């Protein structure tokens, strides 16, 4: 049975700074002027400022995530948000990644009318603004590794999760599933 049978559908969009702006910032090399580093043997690409969390006991946590391979069309059934912190996610080793994201309604719940799906390539990533709802990491076409950075204080307020009715995410019309 197809994952899309009877489900609301989204088509993957290119991950561009303009399209992603309502949800945060895109992180990618080539987005700004690099700075020579390491005696000229490397280029440093600075990302957007990663503001701190002002909650007492909050600390910057840097993690590596590994994902099991999934294929398109893929189902999005869970969203999460980090109400007090930015969260940076960068695809390190992955064929492709799917980033599903939406804003909040007046009640703070996910506003599914704003749900979008972005195609993320290796070396690209995003910084989610605080409180932005997003799907957990989804690696497409093979196992994936991601660098994830957020501020945490170790309480349930670090990450909120909510189940949503399933949405099917597919490759854009005319493109093969990755």
Automatic annotation (TrEMBL):
<dbReference type="Pfam" id="PF04115">
    <property type="entry name" value="Ureidogly_lyase"/>
</dbReference>
<dbReference type="InterPro" id="IPR011051">
    <property type="entry name" value="RmlC_Cupin_sf"/>
</dbReference>
<protein>
    <submittedName>
        <fullName>Ureidoglycolate lyase</fullName>
    </submittedName>
</protein>
<dbReference type="InterPro" id="IPR047233">
    <property type="entry name" value="UAH_cupin"/>
</dbReference>
<comment type="subunit">
    <text>Homodimer.</text>
</comment>
<dbReference type="InterPro" id="IPR024060">
    <property type="entry name" value="Ureidoglycolate_lyase_dom_sf"/>
</dbReference>
<dbReference type="InterPro" id="IPR007247">
    <property type="entry name" value="Ureidogly_lyase"/>
</dbReference>
<dbReference type="GO" id="GO:0016829">
    <property type="term" value="F:lyase activity"/>
</dbReference>
<keyword id="KW-0456">Lyase</keyword>
<keyword id="KW-0659">Purine metabolism</keyword>
